[in-house]
Amino acid sequence: MDDPETGRHRALSGSGAEPGKPFAQVATRALEWLLPPTCPGCRAQVSAPGGLCPDCWERITFLGNPQCSTCGFPFTFQVGPLGGEETLCGDCAREHPPWKRARAAFSYDDASRDLVLAFKHADRTDWAPLFAAWLERAGAELIGDADVIVPVPLHWMRLYTRRYNQAAEIARALSNRAAVPFAPQLLVRPKRSKSQGRLGRRARFLNVQGVFRVPSHQMAALEGKCVLLIDDVLTTGATVGTAAKALLSAGARQVDVLTLARVVRT
Ligand SMILES: [Zn+2]
Ligand SMILES: [Zn+2]
Q1: For residue 148, what is the domain's CATH number?
Q2: Lower CB count within 10 Å: N or C terminus of the chain?
Q3: Alpha carbon of 116 to ligand 2 centroid (Å)
Q4: What is the pTM of this model?
Q5: Which pLDDT band, with edges at 50, 70 and 90, does 197 fall under?
């Protein structure tokens, strides 16, 4: 546990009743058993925990084929050969991103924003198994090829203030579901960067330049591996693209990207 980021993560957000787990977390877990289950999308009461209410199912735009084979941009109709193996969107045709394939479970829009933000900032890590099930469906092909699942790491100071890394939460839940090893130690974020939220496209790429690194003692473990990189939202692809480059230049054979949501600009 020589890396402050992964070390802290493991200490704070492991599952089960490990020694030293803060009392507040145990109390929250107990409350979840007592209170009626609510919908992650709108907090309406639902009959069973871990699912959306019918209204939210209707509103959230789940993504799938037909789509750009490289970045997962959804097409309204099939534009290439059936099966869409090599169907690229305009952006990917102009410049191929560093990763091989990116997929997302749903569109990041007005209907899904609260869901994503609450997962990121409001301690709703209990939704991770539900999100992992969605990721499993959206990224079945990618998961089938993956040797390891790696979350996009946070800088340790940001992890300290947020208390958990939302990408690591879904990555671990997906790893449990799909029986692909969870390997957060393969990628670290030693350099701080500004929040990408208010930056334009070009500034986003500059902001994350050089922020990720594969620790030298992990390079042998990464060598020749097909990595499935997990993040919560894909916007311009600057963050996952930079992370993919770091993994590839340190010896990964291939990097695919799976995110909970993606911005769909038309
Ligand atoms: Zn709902
Ligand atoms: Zn594309």
Answers
A1: 3.40.50
A2: C
A3: 23
A4: 0.82
A5: confident
Ligand showing the shortest atom-to-Cα distance for residue 55: 1
* Ion ligand 2: residue ranges with CB closer than 5 A: 68, 70-71, 73, 89, 92
Ligand 2 centroid from CA 104, angstroms: 12
**Ligand 1 geometric centre to CA of 65 (Å):** 25
Q: What pLDDT is attached to residue 14?
A: 36
In the chain, the amino acid numbered 59 is: R
Residue 54 domain-assigned (yes or no): no
At 174, the amino acid letter reads: L
191, part of any domain:
yes
Render 82-115 in DSSP notation, one character per residue.
TT-TT---HHHHHS--SSS-EEEEEE-STTTHHH
Which domain does 197 fall in, by range? Answer: 61-65+97-262
Smallest-distance ligand from the CA of 70:
2
For residue 132, what are the CA distances in angstroms to 86, 104, 126, 171?
A: 27, 11, 11, 8
- Are 242 and 208 contacting, i.e. CB atoms less than 8 angstroms apart? yes
CA dist., res. 49 & res. 137, Å (int): 20
How many structural domains comprise the chain? 1
Closest ligand (CA of 236): 2
The answer to the question of residue 107 being in a domain is: yes
Q: What is the pLDDT of residues 200-210, one digit of tens each?
A: 888 888 888 88
> Which ligand places an atom closest to the C-alpha of 57?
1
Q: Is residue 101 part of a domain?
A: yes
* Structure-model confidence comparison of residues 48 and 94, the more confident one: 94
